Amino acid sequence: MELGDEVLIERAVKGRDRHAYSQLVLRYQSRLRQALRQQCGGDHALADDIAQDAFIKAYHALAGFKRQSAFFTWLYQIARNSLMSHYRRNIPTPDSELVEHSQAQLVSEGPALNGRDLDRAMVQLSAPQREALHLTYRLGYSNEEAAQLMQLPLGTIKSHVLRGKTKLKTILHDWQQEVCNERG
């Protein structure tokens, strides 16, 4: 019989049962790592590091978990905050000329659009748009669940999804036109 999250949390907090917490880790580690991989631009090592850090932070903060949301939602917020802190510490401000040059190279790199083009196009979205689309389309969360995970109002999530989809369509259409023009 599989124990529920509430029981495992209770055992981990009150009984200091590390085995109970390890059951939570086993239950959610793949899901958390998958959710983080898109946010990390496909950097699996970074996603794994952030996930591990999130589980450690969650373990130490478990007694303060108020159960106002699902355990995974709370855990995801910890991971997301860790990732944002990582980016704030480690990513320099981009040089706008270099960004424009890199984007031009992306467009002219391949003769045909493929599955990787979507990932490359996603990079051009704002971080909130990318995260909202990833949560709703790739991970299958509803807009309401994405709003809770991102701690944003529902209307804001809907705007991020709509604007992100519109921008992706434009980017991919432009790339497709470029490919057709190169062939013609």
Question: What can you see in these coordinates?
Answer:
Keywords: DNA-binding, Sigma factor, Transcription, Transcription regulation. With 184 residues, the protein is an all-alpha fold. It folds into 2 domains: 5-90, Orthogonal Bundle (Rna Polymerase Sigma Factor, Chain: A); 96-183, Arc Repressor Mutant, subunit A (Orthogonal Bundle). Helix content is 77%, strand content 0%. It is built from 9 helices and no strands. The protein has helices at residues 5-14, 18-39, 44-61, 71-90, 96-109, 115-122, 127-138, 143-150, 154-183. The radius of gyration is 20 Å and the shape is elongated.
**Count of strand segments:** 0
The low-confidence parts are 91-96, 98-112
Strand and helix order: HHHHHHHHH
User: Kindly, what is the distance between the CA atoms of the first and last residues, rounded to a whole number of angstroms?
Assistant: 63 Å
The CATH H-level homologous superfamily of the largest domain? Winged helix-like DNA-binding domain superfamily/Winged helix DNA-binding domain
**Cα-atom Rg, whole angstroms?**
20 Å
Instruction: Kindly provide the name of the CATH class of the largest domain.
Output: Mainly Alpha
Mean pLDDT: 80
Number of domains: 2
What share of residues is helical?
Answer: over 70%
CATH architectural group of the largest domain: Orthogonal Bundle
- Structural class comes to mainly alpha
**What's the CATH topology name of the largest domain?**
Arc Repressor Mutant, subunit A
How much β-strand is present in the residues? Answer: under 5%
Report the principal-axis shape.
elongated
Number of helices: 9
Largest sheet: none
Family: Belongs to the sigma-70 factor family. ECF subfamily.
Protein name: RNA polymerase sigma factor
Keywords: DNA-binding, Sigma factor, Transcription, Transcription regulation
